[in-house]
Amino acid sequence: MRRNFLLIAGVAAILASCSKTETVERPETAGIRFDGAYIGYSTETRAFTEINALSEFWVYGQYTKNDASTVTVFSNDKVTEGSGENVWTYEGGQRPWINGATYTFAAYAPQGAVSAEGLNDKGYLTFTYTSDQNNQNDLLYAAHTQTGKTEDNESITLTFKHLLSNVQFTFKNGFDKTSEVNVSNIQVTGIATQATFTGNTPTGIGDENFGGDWNTVTGNGTFTLTDQLQISAAGSNDEIVVIPQSVGTVNVTFDVEVKDQNGQTIASKDKISVNLPNETTTTWAKGYRYNYVATITPESVDLEYIEFKEPTVDEWKPSEDVELEISVPKE
Prior knowledge:
By secondary structure, this protein is mainly β. 0% of the residues lie in helices and 42% in strands. The chain is built from no helices and 22 strands. Strands 2-3-10-9-7-4-5-6 form an eight-stranded mixed beta sheet, with no helix packed on it.
């Protein structure tokens, strides 16, 4: 039996979305300030809770100077966008810059996403995270280093990046325009759900500079997507966020129901099963979306339509090989 499922892994480079950062006049007491933040990658999402603009984040920070003991400056403190443009405030009063001190900062969003026991030996966060069916939240992270001066200290602008991978499933209608195709009970299995992220010193700028990485992922979760999608020729989709990982045997199952223009069910098939291709796209990287496309065709549900082939036309046939005389009257 022929199954015409075309599942294509397409890596979409995800556009940057930012809240504007402009220079503002510093107050006379120029303590450590957060001048705003922007997200390095943004994703269009529906099935999970997305963060595409920040109004608050949580920060850790410390400094060292002249090989002295580390001094904690921030410890999971909330930083909030203020009422004025580019005015951000934090809890616990202003912290001063110390001349010659080397500062490290690590921040995350949303609230409660990270349960960190403390900073690692580099001064950044290390935490274990689970991204499964019960935790479909965007996860943002930022790291920053800066040396304190006696004056003219620049405000801190953190660049937040998506630490998870976005996996999208698009279903397209391969029937004629009069047919309605519904996909339901979509389940995805074979995805690891837990890993530990270890922050490190950012080595430069650019999309790939996260300032840290995930270790080996563990677990095997089942993800249930939207209960029912009525799909069109252009496609309807749903998506999940997962821990970045190598793509193993990831299986998608779903039910299909097809109705004609009168609303009558003409075909249905349950528990259609297909594995995601992993020959070209072998890894899901943090901050990227991967779109897998399945086109549902009549062959997919074992449906055959009445078809007409090119017709033939019989030639005129003579009755007999004889001549038929007509009698013409004479005057």
